[in-house]
Write a structure and sequence with these properties.
Blueprint (H helix, E strand, L loop, with lengths): L7 H13 L4 H32 L1 H7 L1 H18 L12 H22 L3 H19 L3 H22 L2 H44 L9 H18 L3 E8 L2 H8 L1 H17 L6 E6 L2 E7 L3 H16 L3 E3 L2 E3 L3 E7 L7 H17 L5 E3 L11
Parallel strand pairs: 6-7
Antiparallel strand pairs: 1-3, 1-6, 2-3, 4-5
Bound molecules: guanosine-5'-triphosphate (GTP).
Guanosine-5'-triphosphate binds next to β1, α10 and α11.
Length: 380
Amino acid sequence: MHTRSPSVPAAALAGLRNLFHPLPGELEAAFDTQLDAGIARLLLVLGPAFGLFVVLFGAWDAWIDTARAASTVRIRVALVLLGAPAWAAGRLRWGPGPRCAWLYATHAGAMVVCAAMLPEGLVLALPGLTGALFLLALVEPRPRRFMLATLPPSLLLALLAILNLAPGPGLHVLLLYSLSWPLALCVALATLQLRRRAFLAEQAVLDAVRHDSLSGALSRRYVTELALHDLALARRHGRSLALAMLDIDHFKRVNDTWGHAAGDRALCAMVRACKENLRASDYIGRLGGEEFVCVMPETGAGEAMACAERMRAAVAALRLPVGTDTLRFTVSAGVAVLSPEQSGWEELLRAADAALYQAKESGRNRTVLARTAAPPARAG
Ligand SMILES: Nc1nc2c(ncn2[C@@H]2O[C@H](COP(=O)(O)OP(=O)(O)OP(=O)(O)O)[C@@H](O)[C@H]2O)c(=O)[nH]1
């Protein structure tokens, strides 16, 4: 069916909307959180530096008009102190975005007000004020927040330029500032795009490190990282945690009979079947080869055995068409639960591995619960 391509204005509108929300919901939220964390760190350094800059600019006031410098310095100090909570107000539950806007509004506002009190001050201060705009565009590139932060000092500047300056210099200030502002907004948008791209690249690398590219299970490194965290939580709060180790039965035979590509498909199908039978808080990782581990936080022995059995049955029910034939395979599982004797990740893995070994020894395609006392490491 022929689909009509969007009209030029509609495409332009979509492109513009894309500029504001180009990432899918969850990713955009993660990107926002990352930007906010960066701004919070920057505010700790840039906040006092900006404050010091605004106050030290009082020396320039004295150079231009010694008589008014005492008043302007007082205004500078007062407005910098008013904005100072924004430097590090994390404890007040004041988000980095509003803090950045408040910091800019008060500090740039101090520059504007003091410059307006000096003869030709706004003209002379213009480079500093536009410089601050571009610096903000790099620190807070989100357009809405950029506009929110720059609006109060910009309106103040426009008002004071109209009221205080002769028509010639006033127009000069207004013109230059209103040319700089959209330019700074463009810098903000370009910065935002670059940072979004960097964020996406970082996510792709993280994803590659955290997942097994073939089966879609978590990587050994990441599953260990998550499990160590969940284990520490379980031990601290006296909660249960279980893990199930799963291994495909006679996988070498599967590969030899059906080919390596069919073996790969079996691995993927097995992981999918297991995921369908795990809770959202559980996760499965590939330890290596055809060996997988499922971590089940807040799960006792009974529930873990039931879950492992469900996964085993789901795998046994799989039918993979290979040419004109159908590939069927099974898994064996060993389950271990957190206990005083098995409280470490390595101990739990050892216990589950010993139970898995028992499942294999007693005929395969079955689930065995580990004895509570940690058994010795399996040889080989
Ligand atoms: N297709 C495929 N095969 C793999 C992969 N990783 C490991 N294998 C194969 O998995 C097989 C594991 O064989 P074994 O360790 O002897 O175990 P098994 O044949 O499953 O026997 P039991 O575990 O005792 O039931 C080997 O033939 C490996 O080549 C993979 O990513 N894809």
